[in-house]
């Protein structure tokens, strides 16, 4: 031992490292053998509550999923036009449906008439109202904002150095130069 140049402490440290390495290898081997099997072995193992949904629908052939009569009946569309949660205060204006032939239709007059009916009908959305606001500072929690502008006009800063910064800051130098000239 002493002829190899190893002390007793070094020999114990080497043996301890070898034992730790051996223990790690044995631990990995035992964990690999005791590995649990997956919960679902294959895709064919389908239970009642686990179903694969890979179909996208019937397409045009699927005519049973909706009521076709709702599409053919224009009165249903009229019933669904109004909001159910907000009832209008004024009854809707009666619509006049004039029976005209295709030859005598004046499209511009027809559009103007329909536009006027829509503008005067209070029962259709949006339910607009005039928004009134109090005067600035008059019994307002926000107070007056006119003090924001007064801080820039009474400034004692010299902005002439902005002209030396080059063409990128030319507009900024012009703006602050105007403020300087207004103050004097």
UniProtKB/TrEMBL annotation:
Residue ranges occupied by any Cadherin Y-type LIR-motif domain in the UniProt entry: 118-177
Residue ranges crossing the lipid bilayer per the database entry: 6-31
GO CC terms, sorted: adherens junction; catenin complex
Keyword line: Calcium, Cell adhesion, Cell membrane, Cleavage on pair of basic residues, Glycoprotein, Membrane, Metal-binding, Repeat, Transmembrane, Transmembrane helix
Subcellular location: Cell membrane
Bilayer topology: Single-pass type I membrane protein
BP term (GO), one: cell-cell junction assembly
UniProt KW Amino-acid biosynthesis keyword: no
GO terms, molecular function: beta-catenin binding; cadherin binding; calcium ion binding
InterPro entries: Cadherin, Cadherin_Y-type_LIR, Catenin-bd_sf
Function as written in the Swiss-Prot or TrEMBL entry: Cadherins are calcium-dependent cell adhesion proteins.
Name under which the protein is recorded: CAD18 protein
């Amino acid at each position: 031992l002493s002829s190899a140049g190893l002390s007793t402490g070094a020999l114990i440290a080497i043996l301890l490292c070898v034992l730790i390495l051996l223990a790690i290898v044995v631990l990995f081997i035992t964990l690999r053998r005791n590995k649990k099997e997956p919960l679902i072995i294959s895709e064919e193992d389908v239970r009642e509550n686990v179903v694969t949904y890979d179909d996208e629908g019937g397409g045009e052939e699927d005519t049973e999923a909706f009521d076709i009569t709702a599409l053919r009946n224009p009165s249903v569309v009229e019933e669904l036009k109004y909001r159910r949660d907000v009832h209008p205060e004024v009854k809707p204006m009666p619509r006049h449906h004039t029976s005209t032939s295709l030859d005598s239709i004046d499209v511009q007059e027809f559009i103007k008439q329909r536009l006027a009916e829509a503008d005067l009908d209070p029962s259709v959305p949006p339910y607009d109202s005039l928004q009134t606001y109090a005067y600035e500072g008059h019994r307002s929690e926000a107070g007056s904002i006119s003090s924001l502008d007064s801080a820039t006009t009474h400034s004692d800063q010299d902005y002439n150095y902005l002209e030396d910064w080059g063409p990128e800051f030319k507009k900024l130098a012009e703006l602050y130069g105007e403020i300087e000239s207004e103050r004097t």
